[in-house]
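Forum: Protein Structure Q&A
Topic: Joint prediction for protein chains with partners

I've read a bunch of threads here and the consensus seems to be that you should model interacting components together rather than docking separate models afterwards. I'd like to see that in practice. Below is the full input, 564 residues plus whatever partners are listed. Could one of the regulars post the assembled result?
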Amino acid sequence: MGQIEKTRLFQGNEACVAGAIAAGANFYAGYPITPSTEIAELAARKLPETGGKFIQMEDEIGSMAAVIGASIGGAKSFTATSGPGFSLKQENIGYAMMAEIPCVIVNVQRLGPSTGIATAPAQGDIMQARWGTHGDHPVIAFAPSSVRETFDLTVKAFNLSEKLRQPVFILLDEIVGHMRENIHIPHQDELEIINREKPLPDQPYKPYDEEKEVSPLASFGEGFSYNITGLVHDEYGFPTTDSEKTKKLLSRLQRKIDNHLEEIILTEEFGMDDASLVVVSYGCTARSVRQAVKMARKNGLPVGFFRTATIWPFPYEKISAFADKTKTLLVPEMNMGQIFGEVERAVHGQARVVGLNRFDGEMITPDEILQKILEVI
Amino acid sequence: MNGRSEIRLSGSGGQGLILAAIILAEAVADEGGYVVQTQSYGPEARGGASKAEVITDVEEISYPKVGSPDFVLTMSENSYLKYGSDYKEDGILLVDTTFVKNVVSNGKNVVALPITRYAKEELGRDTVANIIALGILNGLANIVIHDTLKKAVLSRCPSGSEEINTKALELGLSLAKETRSTASRLA
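Posted by a regular:
Agreed with the consensus. Here's the joint model:
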């Protein structure tokens, strides 16, 4: 032993709170739910220590409303929940997307649908994150695979949220959320922290400037009067039904994400050069895949590892780029095949896509993956 | 320590098995090894099935769950029936006979001791059974240096309970030594 220095045992949910506070979070509103409860508990303890606020709301809908309100008041705000609560938050999440209110929503996924199994892991909320709220809108969602990555991606989620005035999701799962690993937490001055741009005082202010990708966001109470609504709005935030303005607004919302794909999309790969089979994974399942791919390599099988830490926007181009050099893509996930369809879209017939699915509340094991590799390679 | 080592602590909710796993993991972290700790449990806080796992390695750990454990603790009849034979050929099963009445030979190492009864009779509190079990486990498997484990126990136990927890850990260690010297206990 003795190869790691200054590590401490952290739980995934704990690393999420540490990341949020490191990113400058100073407001949490939530309604505790397994397996995300530790995030609420720790936020309740830690936020007041650094001058922040914690409030337990009457339900998930109120929590999401409070998170939006706090952000408009100038706070960096977040909430955490699991599938059932994520469902309830969707209406207000849509409001935050339309009104461009920065905030971070953590969903520690458990087995659904409905209340499902409170303590069992799943990766079943991938599509809910994408389309849970109605209408066309872009989504940013990260799925960490380790405790350390939970810290890093939480910081990144806040940064992107502030920079792009966009709600950002962190899709943890029960495994990563409850798992403890000894990790090194970076020092505060090693981190890049982004704060939202604010309007200059005594200048004309457009909260939704058509000429800008992202407009500065004035905090309520700081002297700027403007309107915020979930309705389609003009540059000053007032409702409009003008089709030209509508098209401009929705296009800009999409464009502000599309223009930053390189910054948002994080992937990891190894063993790709000669791979005739590539295993595509994310979240906790990527840990089993890593072990399985190493085992396959040891046995001389040309198998590659491709993991995406960013679920939305999905790395279509990166997958498409290697799809024609490979025969088969294997997609293990703890659902009935949600990312599978996205991989198929990316591959576009250039290779065969095979799924490996579990939806019984148990992790997919490295042995199961290796067996599937042997079967389909 | 060499290579991956897998430890499974199983029993009922309320026996402190997740805490025991956290303490062990913190001790491993303190010594600079890689460690992952996971658990699974039912919705009940007390009484339901509970399982906590610790994996240690000299390199980064991918799969965080136990596949084939080196050490298994069973502190309930149900956990004994479920996990009592699922471990490596040269692994060790530790059974708390306070709860498991019929311990049968499985051709592998089995250490059967009334851990919770010891906690109650010798230390006056059955809640330290988990710490005794940790002492036995580490005494048999030498996962970390005893003093590192002691430090981890003391950093996690509520103030005022340092003495009884230290005694529990020492009792566990002496039970392990006794077990080692009397091979008859290893069925």
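Chain A has two domains: 8-190, 266-376.
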